[in-house]
Inverse folding.
């Protein structure tokens, strides 16, 4: 589960990004983060390999390694023979085994707890279906707190320092402290999820963050793409969500609501959406609508959203007529929405996630005849439409990877 790819540090000759405001302690913390991040990305490495890979001087790496070894953040492996040339290589390895990360996720079908090490190695996973009781947040918060308690009491967490906790919701988040602003998938209005959890499970750490799934998933999917900095992310599993990343920066908007792409009003005078608008993308391409049109409403009610969407996808890929017709209509609206967004901010890549990932080619086929361009000079084929690579766990992985990245900005805190 460790994040793939190479380190993205832009190092100068001494490994420090030029910044006039950095004081010496900031520079040291930054360089400690460079060393630990290199080991996360590349595995056990020698001091010389770290220096060559980061641009830090070998003397700097040696001094930084001493600090990290003394703090117990790194360990030294037994020396390796250097192939008959030179002295044996001593490899450094990340050794923060006593640190754990927790992501607690609530979607329209189930609650999930994922506990990993700082390098992303899974320690524990608990999932429970909540039955989607519409408009009843207390029932779902009870289950979320139960799953949290089971994770906190688990053998996998016993003796470990819980360094970061993220609660992931499939809904827009805003305010200070952060709350769920509304959850149309579950029929919620504003709900203070963290306060509700803490009332039920007082051990919830104060450092816990509440985050929307689409933003976390988008950042995680971006990390899987090489040479892409500007990306449109659009996904569907519970409802429709999305995110916009420009030059590597996630657009949050003035109220933190940018990327609520399921609620773009794409059908003038269309059906009333649960959000209060008319003609939202969710009313013509949302999962509940497509499942009903495909004749899978009973399966949705009996087996839940995850099972119903898996069956829907299977039928579409098998060419089953009713499911294919339902998807054909939805895919046309998705392509139309992508056309509008492509012309709005000019992405390098369009990534489709959730159950749409398996159907990305059909959306691309619908988009191509629309030919988004400016007088033909910026044609559609300059934009790649790609399937998401991280599957249903994209937001969970995004939460874990984001937590890891925050901790690696100040790696000495891993010694706690």
């Amino acid at each position: 589960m460790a994040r793939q790819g190479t380190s993205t540090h832009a190092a100068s000759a001494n490994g420090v990004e030029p910044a006039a405001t950095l004081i010496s302690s900031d520079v040291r913390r930054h360089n400690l983060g460079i060393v630990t991040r290199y080991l996360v990305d590349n595995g056990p490495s020698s001091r010389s390999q770290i220096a060559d890979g980061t641009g830090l001087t070998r003397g700097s790496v040696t001094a930084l390694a001493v600090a990290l070894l003394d703090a117990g953040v790194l360990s030294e492996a037994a020396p390796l023979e250097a192939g008959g040339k030179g002295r044996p290589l001593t490899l450094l390895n990340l050794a923060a085994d006593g640190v754990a990360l927790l992501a607690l996720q609530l979607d329209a079908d189930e609650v999930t707890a994922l506990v990993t090490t700082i390098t992303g190695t899974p320690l524990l996973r608990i999932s429970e279906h909540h039955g989607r009781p519409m408009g009843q947040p207390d029932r779902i918060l009870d289950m979320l707190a139960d799953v949290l308690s089971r994770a906190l009491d688990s053998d996998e967490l016993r003796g470990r320092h819980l360094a970061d906790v993220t609660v992931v919701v499939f809904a827009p988040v805003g305010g200070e402290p952060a709350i769920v602003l509304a959850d149309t998938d579950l029929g919620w209005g504003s709900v203070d999820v963290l306060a509700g959890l803490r009332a039920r499970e007082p051990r919830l750490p104060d450092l816990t963050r509440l985050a929307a799934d689409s933003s976390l998933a988008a950042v995680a999917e971006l990390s899987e793409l090489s040479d892409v900095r500007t990306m449109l992310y659009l996904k569907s599993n519970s409802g429709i969500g999305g995110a916009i990343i420009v030059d590597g920066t996630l657009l949050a908007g003035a109220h933190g609501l940018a990327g609520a792409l399921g609620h773009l009003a794409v059908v003038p005078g269309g059906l009333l959406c649960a959000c209060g608008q008319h003609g939202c993308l969710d009313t013509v391409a949302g999962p509940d609508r497509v499942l009903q049109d495909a004749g899978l409403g009973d399966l949705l009610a009996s087996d839940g959203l995850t099972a119903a969407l898996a069956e829907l996808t299977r039928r579409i890929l098998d060419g089953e007529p009713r499911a294919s017709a339902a998807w054909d209509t939805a895919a046309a609206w998705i392509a139309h929405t992508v056309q509008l967004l492509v012309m709005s901010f000019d992405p390098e890549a369009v990534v489709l996630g959730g159950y749409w990932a398996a159907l990305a080619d059909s959306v691309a086929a619908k988009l191509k005849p629309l030919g988004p361009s400016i007088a033909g000079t910026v044609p559609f084929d300059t934009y790649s439409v790609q399937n998401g690579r991280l599957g249903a766990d994209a937001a969970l992985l995004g939460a874990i990877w984001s937590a890891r990245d925050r901790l690696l900005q100040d790696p000495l805190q891993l010694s706690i």
About this structure: The longest strand covers residues 161-169. The radius of gyration is 23 Å.
